[in-house]
Fold each of these.
Amino acid sequence: MFDRLRAIDWADDTAAFQHAHSRALLMREYLRRAALWARAYKAEKSWPFFDIAEHIDSDITTPPDVAEALEQWLQSLAPSSLRTTCKGAVKWAALRNARPDMPESLPDPYEPLLLMYERGGGYYLHEYLDLNGVMIPLRDVESNASATPFDTLSPATLDALDGMGELTYFAKISEGYPRHSPRGIVRRRIDGDQTHDEAFTRNLRWEPTEYLRLYDLGHNDIDHVRITEIEAAGFIESLTEKLAGTS
């Protein structure tokens, strides 16, 4: 785990902006998972950026040589809550090795956060969470614990959710193709004064489409509804698995 952290480029602002959408989703998923663990072990006051393993089994420690090297390496990182999550992730790995009886009903808390770090570095904590490309509200434990799960964490799906500008997703629906299993998905990407309409195709990438423009002109045999990024992620992952023959 320490090697994984050391491999992160914490100053890659370009990656942070390129992956702004997926980083926001990953941070929200970390907040949700951390809230679930905080509620399960009565650690609500320590949420959101905390050493979860400490609240589960305080006897678990990071090996001394790793702890010393980690402490020295963390000195250059900020804010302090980010350093706490890095130490927490390392100790979490030790906990998982020592406690195979951990509840399977709760998801790995740190994986979304680690993926976010790997896609553009850390964050700044002000009134909002500043992810260096997008800002999201922190909210409270209960609202995060009840948020919609974002479980599609594969790199290809995360990449597909990124794109410059403001993104709005739509599912193409008709008889036999409801919202949760649509004919396909399209998105409108507004970047400055440019509007780009794109469909996610069987080539597993976004390609230009005339569907939304033609729909507005009255060619509306196939309808559509607006969907969330998480719903779009589910379709992308489902299509990827289907074409790979794994579903």
Amino acid sequence: MIANADHLSRKVAGQALAMLTTESAQNCLIVLQEPDFIKKLKHMILIHDGKYIYVAASLLRNLCLHSRHELREPDLKELSHILREVLEKIIDVEGAELEIIIGLSSLICKTIPQDFTQELEGGQIKRRFVKRLVDVLNANTEPGANCPGIRRVILEQVIYMMESNYRYADCFNEFRMTEALSVVEQTLSHAESYKFFLGDAGFMEYNTPISALVVRAKELMCCN
């Protein structure tokens, strides 16, 4: 009972930190002052404990998003160490967990693009990974309430991959990403404009509309 209570309190604390760092670069900088904080999050992801992995992934994503240029070399190495686990998770998980993991993967790709490419190519999962992104995009023409941002994080992943390595466009074309992007363009949802929901009300509107992400992805597909 005590152990369960301890697990719950840690999870709640992690969720609170994830919320506090969602929109605040300043809070991210404060969190990074904790010694070995990135390393601790890495361990939470690698121990395969469902109680912590997605909270840790949300926190890592926020830190990469808001404090990417503040990450030190040891921090970047810790990110590189979890890449294989993150990529494999994307193949296996569904729903809200998938949205969180792809969100982290896309920011790792943007933060350490060479490491991302090396892991994707060296691990020989590039084709499975690309197909997975296209399949999930096609399966979510009406994103559910539990993962309203799933298409947004996939589009960001696609964009960051092609911005870092134009050759990915060929692989996306092979799996008909252009057609999938056209479907997204035709089925845009107002719910995809918000980060959080309380009932039916959306809060924290994204600065970049999802339509702009579709346009950018199509540009990269055509240019490459």
Amino acid sequence: MARLLPLLLAAAAVIAVIQFVAPAFVGVPAPAARAQTALRARGGGEYDVSDADIEAFYASVTSGGGGDPPKGTVISELIVKFFHGEFTPQGFIRYSGLWKGPPPGGIGKKDIAVGVAKLKEQMANPMFVTKGGGGAGVDETQKVVDDGKGWVWLAADMGPGGLAVELFKSVPYGKRALFVAKQANVEEAFSKADWGAVLANVEKTLGG
């Protein structure tokens, strides 16, 4: 009995410690954890794109010398591919004639200039606008054609045929936002375009 007494006292001490420490390991209730996950899925918190973020993005792509994007870059090729042509109510008809170059027969400065002019026209008065906004990861029913903020975006996305660009009048969450302008003053943005910054945006996704 004398030998058992120390063992019983030690066991009682261990139980007391466990009872004291256990409450510190209580987990977060499941509903609260799910709510936090849902907030992130809706674009809450870290994935929001605020008005200040848009202004900062605008400043980043309009800190250059303007003009047209250089020949041979992804940006100039996308602009020519998706804006050098005719916009009709039935859709966009891509130019299929001989490229002016130089050199003739290849895409050059003359063709890029035509594509940029068409892009400006469409950003000022877009015929086709893709739905956006709503936050990162939202479904189609929560997206809008125009968020009323006055911005028009040029954004790219990867499709079966490679990169394609579209125009948005709401934040293009989940897309590769390339350029943005105030719809009421598109010329201002192009007069200060930083095509190096625009090119770098090809590798970035907006809003998470």
Amino acid sequence: MSNPHHPNGQPRPSHVGRPEIASPLATHSDFIPERADLLLVTCVKTKLNVPAAAKDLYVSSLFKKQRAYAESRGIPWFILSAEHGLVAPDEWLAPYERYLPDTPMSYRAAWGAWAAERLELLEGPLNGKIIEIHAGAPYINVIADHLIAKGATVVNRLEGLTMGARLQWYTASGTGDTDPVRVRQGEQTHEAAAAFITLLLDESRAIAPADFLEHGGDGLKRPGLYSWWVDDSGASDLADGLDIQISCGLIYAGLAGATRWPSGKRSTNTLWSRIVGMHLDD
């Protein structure tokens, strides 16, 4: 691909017409759109060692700058994961080890097609959309054709830049790093989930099923987390029925309403419908 630069050394963004062949617009900055409709950034090797939201899982300096840039654009953005394809920033991921260039060509071909399909699934038709990608050639080369085939325009603003030059570009763009993710020592509980875990472990908030049903669902017809507790009598009944030793206390935690993987479709379950329909329905 061509690698045009401004006289002051700042890189010009380029359009990608095909992964191997730059569009004629690549050499004419007047035609480069200033604002994209969607933004994709690459995953990185350095990650937390505990599950986290995708935007928090990756902790390298490059990713922090990518994230800050993406969040400053005010447009939907996604992460290109070698393991999971295309993921939304708030999707919860476990740490993994997968490097796209080390995978077979057949995997990369399927990966590129799936990432493009999932983007269209989540954001609607891509025809006419401008998609800005911040990733290396191994990622762009296997997804660009699929996006272009759907009528999108692909923009690669960092084409040809070394890692150091990329970091400098983000600094020059005026977007700094996001705050570092803090992980509590010992239990290794991710801070973003700590508040939810605290509530789920608070037995004083538990109510009896009859009281729950009398509530009528007020404030509960929405997604959320919940936990089940049993007293001595309930633990004894469960132990007899399951033929295993069960103590009183917390026995289960559940989630109502979520984005299903790999379809990307959101569940319509609410706390009320799930608990009443799946747990208390005779």
